[in-house]
Task: structure prediction
Amino acid sequence: MGVPPHPYRAVEISQVETGWMPCALFPELNREVLEDSIQSYALRQKYRIAYFITNYHAAALDAEHAELLHCKKGMPVMDITSRGVLRDGRIFVYSRIKAVQYECTYVSPFNKDVFLSRRKIITEDA
Result:
């Protein structure tokens, strides 16, 4: 199941992603779509995307992914699970990523209502 080396340049694989999409929502899904943008495809199909739920946790690399990533089994990786949810509540995509040397940065807008509600809870508990 190993990945053969590229004959012209060094290839460094840093993550492996496995995804699932419901066939009932996407009966004409093909490889070209999967290699491009699943979100764009869903929007072209007139689905209304509401949000994504993403979970990050540290894990040890299993034998299958170690072979794919050319790493040692047991090496620490970031295990990322993501679900895309439509406005009607249906999950339209589920993916799982194993990533080595993972790093990310988030920019989150300030939400005054959430801030004030948290302040109120802290004040009431004190």
The beta strands are 15-20, 49-60, 76-86, 91-99. The mean pLDDT is 87. The chain has four helices and four strands.
